[in-house]
Amino acid sequence: MNKASQNLKLQKWVAAISLLLLIVKFFAYYITHSVAILTDALESIANVAAGLIGLYSLYVAAKPRDFDHPYGHGKAEFLSAAVEGTLIVSAGAIILYKAIKNLLYPIPIHRVDFGIWLVAATAVVNFILGYYCLLIGKKNNSLALLASGKHLLSDTWSTLGIIVGLVLLHFTGYKWIDGVVAMLFGLLIIYTGYKILRRSIAGIMDEADIKLLSHLVTLLNHNRSVNWIDLHNLRVIKYGSVLHIDCHLTVPWFLNVNEAHNEVDALSALVRKEFGEAVELFVHTDGCLPFSCKICNKENCAERKYNFEKRIDWTLENISQNKKHELI
Question: Mean pLDDT score of the chain, rounded to an integer?
Answer without folding.
Answer: 81
